[in-house]
Design goal:
With 259 residues, the chain is an alpha/beta fold. It has one domain: Purple Acid Phosphatase, chain A, domain 2 (4-Layer Sandwich). Helices cover 26% and strands 27% of the residues.
Protein backbone atom coordinates (compact mmCIF):
# COMPACT_ATOMS: atom_id res chain seq x y z
CA UNK A 1 0.00 0.00 0.00
CA UNK A 2 1.02 3.63 -0.46
CA UNK A 3 0.68 6.35 2.16
CA UNK A 4 1.31 10.09 2.31
CA UNK A 5 2.55 11.66 5.53
CA UNK A 6 2.28 15.45 5.72
CA UNK A 7 4.55 17.76 7.71
CA UNK A 8 3.26 20.26 10.28
CA UNK A 9 0.25 22.15 8.86
CA UNK A 10 0.74 25.81 9.81
CA UNK A 11 -2.17 28.25 10.00
CA UNK A 12 -4.61 29.16 7.26
CA UNK A 13 -1.98 29.05 4.46
CA UNK A 14 -1.12 25.48 5.42
CA UNK A 15 -4.75 24.42 5.56
CA UNK A 16 -5.49 26.01 2.19
CA UNK A 17 -2.58 24.39 0.36
CA UNK A 18 -3.41 21.03 1.96
CA UNK A 19 -7.02 21.23 0.78
CA UNK A 20 -5.99 22.45 -2.67
CA UNK A 21 -3.51 19.73 -3.57
CA UNK A 22 -3.99 16.67 -1.35
CA UNK A 23 -6.54 15.01 -3.62
CA UNK A 24 -4.23 15.43 -6.61
CA UNK A 25 -1.27 14.08 -4.63
CA UNK A 26 -3.22 11.03 -3.52
CA UNK A 27 -4.13 10.25 -7.11
CA UNK A 28 -0.58 10.88 -8.35
CA UNK A 29 0.98 8.57 -5.76
CA UNK A 30 -1.98 6.15 -5.61
CA UNK A 31 -2.08 6.69 -1.85
CA UNK A 32 -4.89 5.17 0.14
CA UNK A 33 -3.97 6.55 3.56
CA UNK A 34 -2.89 10.01 4.74
CA UNK A 35 -1.43 11.17 8.06
CA UNK A 36 -0.83 14.86 8.82
CA UNK A 37 0.63 16.66 11.82
CA UNK A 38 -1.81 19.47 12.68
CA UNK A 39 -0.59 20.95 15.97
CA UNK A 40 0.00 24.38 14.37
CA UNK A 41 -3.13 24.45 12.21
CA UNK A 42 -5.04 27.12 14.19
CA UNK A 43 -3.26 30.48 13.87
CA UNK A 44 0.08 28.67 14.11
CA UNK A 45 -0.54 27.13 17.53
CA UNK A 46 -3.04 24.43 18.42
CA UNK A 47 -6.28 23.20 16.91
CA UNK A 48 -10.01 23.92 17.21
CA UNK A 49 -12.82 21.51 16.26
CA UNK A 50 -13.89 23.35 13.10
CA UNK A 51 -10.36 23.24 11.70
CA UNK A 52 -9.92 19.60 12.66
CA UNK A 53 -13.09 18.70 10.76
CA UNK A 54 -11.86 20.79 7.81
CA UNK A 55 -8.58 18.88 7.67
CA UNK A 56 -10.32 15.51 7.82
CA UNK A 57 -12.66 16.61 5.03
CA UNK A 58 -9.62 17.51 2.89
CA UNK A 59 -8.67 13.82 2.85
CA UNK A 60 -6.53 13.28 5.94
CA UNK A 61 -7.23 9.98 7.69
CA UNK A 62 -5.36 10.51 10.97
CA UNK A 63 -4.11 13.75 12.56
CA UNK A 64 -1.03 13.70 14.79
CA UNK A 65 0.21 16.53 16.99
CA UNK A 66 2.80 17.58 19.56
CA UNK A 67 3.63 20.16 22.20
CA UNK A 68 1.08 22.74 20.96
CA UNK A 69 -1.92 20.43 20.85
CA UNK A 70 -3.55 21.91 23.96
CA UNK A 71 -2.86 25.58 23.16
CA UNK A 72 -6.54 26.09 22.33
CA UNK A 73 -8.92 25.05 25.11
CA UNK A 74 -11.61 24.08 22.59
CA UNK A 75 -9.57 21.04 21.60
CA UNK A 76 -10.03 19.31 24.98
CA UNK A 77 -13.55 17.98 24.31
CA UNK A 78 -12.79 17.47 20.64
CA UNK A 79 -9.78 15.21 21.18
CA UNK A 80 -11.75 13.09 23.64
CA UNK A 81 -14.45 12.43 21.04
CA UNK A 82 -12.43 12.36 17.80
CA UNK A 83 -10.37 9.14 17.63
CA UNK A 84 -8.62 10.32 14.45
CA UNK A 85 -6.89 13.12 16.39
CA UNK A 86 -3.87 11.99 18.40
CA UNK A 87 -1.67 13.61 21.02
CA UNK A 88 1.73 12.22 22.07
CA UNK A 89 1.32 8.87 23.81
CA UNK A 90 4.02 9.69 26.37
CA UNK A 91 2.01 12.53 27.92
CA UNK A 92 0.63 11.94 31.43
CA UNK A 93 -1.75 8.96 31.47
CA UNK A 94 -4.75 11.12 32.41
CA UNK A 95 -4.15 13.74 29.70
CA UNK A 96 -7.11 14.09 27.32
CA UNK A 97 -7.03 12.01 24.18
CA UNK A 98 -4.86 9.13 23.05
CA UNK A 99 -1.57 8.46 21.29
CA UNK A 100 -2.57 5.47 19.17
CA UNK A 101 -5.00 4.96 16.29
CA UNK A 102 -5.90 1.49 15.06
CA UNK A 103 -8.07 0.94 12.03
CA UNK A 104 -8.21 -0.16 8.42
CA UNK A 105 -8.05 1.36 4.96
CA UNK A 106 -10.83 1.11 2.38
CA UNK A 107 -9.10 -1.96 0.96
CA UNK A 108 -9.00 -3.62 4.37
CA UNK A 109 -5.34 -3.19 5.32
CA UNK A 110 -4.95 -2.90 9.08
CA UNK A 111 -3.01 0.23 10.04
CA UNK A 112 -1.71 1.66 13.31
CA UNK A 113 -0.53 5.24 13.84
CA UNK A 114 1.62 6.07 16.88
CA UNK A 115 2.26 9.65 18.06
CA UNK A 116 5.15 10.26 20.50
CA UNK A 117 7.10 13.33 21.59
CA UNK A 118 10.81 13.78 22.21
CA UNK A 119 12.33 15.03 25.45
CA UNK A 120 15.46 16.95 24.38
CA UNK A 121 14.75 20.72 24.38
CA UNK A 122 11.04 19.90 24.76
CA UNK A 123 8.47 20.07 27.60
CA UNK A 124 8.79 17.22 30.12
CA UNK A 125 7.19 13.92 29.10
CA UNK A 126 7.61 10.24 29.84
CA UNK A 127 10.20 8.28 27.84
CA UNK A 128 9.17 8.10 24.16
CA UNK A 129 11.18 4.92 23.60
CA UNK A 130 9.36 3.04 26.36
CA UNK A 131 6.05 4.52 25.21
CA UNK A 132 6.69 3.17 21.72
CA UNK A 133 7.47 -0.28 23.15
CA UNK A 134 4.26 -0.21 25.19
CA UNK A 135 2.14 0.68 22.19
CA UNK A 136 3.77 -1.94 19.99
CA UNK A 137 2.84 -4.49 22.63
CA UNK A 138 -0.71 -3.17 22.58
CA UNK A 139 -0.87 -3.37 18.79
CA UNK A 140 0.48 -6.92 18.67
CA UNK A 141 -0.61 -8.56 15.44
CA UNK A 142 -3.60 -6.27 14.92
CA UNK A 143 -1.88 -4.12 12.29
CA UNK A 144 0.61 -4.98 9.58
CA UNK A 145 1.37 -1.33 8.76
CA UNK A 146 2.63 0.86 11.61
CA UNK A 147 3.38 4.58 11.17
CA UNK A 148 5.19 6.58 13.86
CA UNK A 149 5.24 10.40 14.16
CA UNK A 150 8.10 11.35 16.48
CA UNK A 151 7.53 15.02 17.33
CA UNK A 152 10.93 16.14 18.53
CA UNK A 153 13.55 18.90 18.39
CA UNK A 154 16.89 17.10 18.42
CA UNK A 155 18.12 15.38 15.28
CA UNK A 156 20.03 12.86 17.40
CA UNK A 157 16.90 11.82 19.29
CA UNK A 158 14.94 11.39 16.07
CA UNK A 159 17.69 9.32 14.45
CA UNK A 160 17.99 7.20 17.58
CA UNK A 161 14.23 6.54 17.50
CA UNK A 162 14.41 5.53 13.85
CA UNK A 163 17.20 3.05 14.59
CA UNK A 164 15.47 1.83 17.75
CA UNK A 165 12.26 1.02 15.89
CA UNK A 166 13.93 -0.25 12.71
CA UNK A 167 12.34 -3.54 11.73
CA UNK A 168 9.54 -3.10 14.27
CA UNK A 169 7.45 -0.50 12.40
CA UNK A 170 6.85 0.48 8.78
CA UNK A 171 7.94 4.11 8.92
CA UNK A 172 9.26 6.67 11.43
CA UNK A 173 8.92 10.35 10.53
CA UNK A 174 10.10 13.35 12.51
CA UNK A 175 8.03 16.50 12.91
CA UNK A 176 8.27 19.78 14.88
CA UNK A 177 11.23 21.69 13.38
CA UNK A 178 9.35 22.73 10.20
CA UNK A 179 12.46 22.33 8.01
CA UNK A 180 12.51 19.31 5.73
CA UNK A 181 15.62 17.15 5.93
CA UNK A 182 17.22 15.41 2.94
CA UNK A 183 17.86 12.05 4.62
CA UNK A 184 14.86 9.99 3.56
CA UNK A 185 15.91 6.34 3.53
CA UNK A 186 14.96 2.77 4.22
CA UNK A 187 16.85 1.56 7.28
CA UNK A 188 18.52 -1.88 7.33
CA UNK A 189 15.55 -3.56 9.02
CA UNK A 190 13.07 -2.25 6.44
CA UNK A 191 11.72 0.84 8.21
CA UNK A 192 11.23 4.00 6.16
CA UNK A 193 12.71 7.05 7.85
CA UNK A 194 13.13 10.85 7.55
CA UNK A 195 14.39 13.12 10.33
CA UNK A 196 11.84 15.86 9.60
CA UNK A 197 8.96 16.04 7.15
CA UNK A 198 9.11 19.82 6.94
CA UNK A 199 6.19 22.21 7.05
CA UNK A 200 2.95 22.55 5.13
CA UNK A 201 2.46 26.28 5.07
CA UNK A 202 4.11 29.57 4.04
CA UNK A 203 7.59 28.65 2.84
CA UNK A 204 8.78 32.28 2.60
CA UNK A 205 8.98 32.73 6.36
CA UNK A 206 10.90 31.66 9.45
CA UNK A 207 9.34 28.24 10.19
CA UNK A 208 5.92 29.66 9.29
CA UNK A 209 6.15 33.01 11.09
CA UNK A 210 6.51 36.40 9.39
CA UNK A 211 10.26 36.78 8.94
CA UNK A 212 10.63 40.36 10.15
CA UNK A 213 8.90 39.59 13.45
CA UNK A 214 11.32 36.77 14.15
CA UNK A 215 14.32 38.87 13.12
CA UNK A 216 13.17 41.66 15.45
CA UNK A 217 12.88 39.16 18.29
CA UNK A 218 16.41 37.89 17.71
CA UNK A 219 17.95 41.34 17.25
CA UNK A 220 16.20 43.17 20.10
CA UNK A 221 15.68 40.28 22.47
CA UNK A 222 12.20 41.52 23.43
CA UNK A 223 8.90 39.62 23.47
CA UNK A 224 6.88 40.04 20.30
CA UNK A 225 3.59 38.57 19.13
CA UNK A 226 4.24 36.20 16.25
CA UNK A 227 1.94 36.15 13.23
CA UNK A 228 1.69 33.44 10.60
CA UNK A 229 3.23 34.36 7.26
CA UNK A 230 1.33 33.89 4.00
CA UNK A 231 3.76 33.83 1.08
CA UNK A 232 4.58 30.83 -1.10
CA UNK A 233 2.52 28.08 0.59
CA UNK A 234 3.83 24.56 0.02
CA UNK A 235 3.05 21.05 1.18
CA UNK A 236 6.02 19.11 2.54
CA UNK A 237 6.06 15.47 3.54
CA UNK A 238 6.78 12.00 2.17
CA UNK A 239 5.11 9.36 0.05
CA UNK A 240 5.89 5.85 1.28
CA UNK A 241 5.16 2.49 -0.31
CA UNK A 242 4.76 -0.29 2.23
CA UNK A 243 4.44 -4.04 1.72
CA UNK A 244 1.34 -4.73 3.79
CA UNK A 245 2.25 -8.41 4.09
CA UNK A 246 5.59 -7.76 5.81
CA UNK A 247 4.98 -4.22 7.11
CA UNK A 248 8.30 -3.10 5.61
CA UNK A 249 8.83 0.02 3.52
CA UNK A 250 9.57 -0.50 -0.17
CA UNK A 251 10.27 3.13 -1.08
CA UNK A 252 10.17 6.62 0.44
CA UNK A 253 10.07 9.86 -1.55
CA UNK A 254 10.20 13.43 -0.26
CA UNK A 255 7.34 15.74 -1.23
CA UNK A 256 7.74 19.49 -1.68
CA UNK A 257 4.75 20.70 -3.68
CA UNK A 258 3.41 24.16 -4.48
CA UNK A 259 -0.28 24.85 -4.97
Amino acid sequence: MKVIIVGDVVGKPGRKVLAAILKRLKEQHEAEFVVANIENAAEGAGLVPKIGDEILAAGVDVMTSGNHIFDKKEVIAYIENQPRLLRPANYAPDAPGRGLWLGSTASGTQVAVINIQGRIFMPPTDCPFRAADRLLGEIGNRASVIIVDHHAEATSEKQAMGRYLDGKVSVVVGTHTHVQTADEQILPGGTGYITDLGMTGPYDSVIGVQSQLVITRFVRGLPIRYQTASENPQLHGVAVEIDERTGKAVSIVRLQVKE
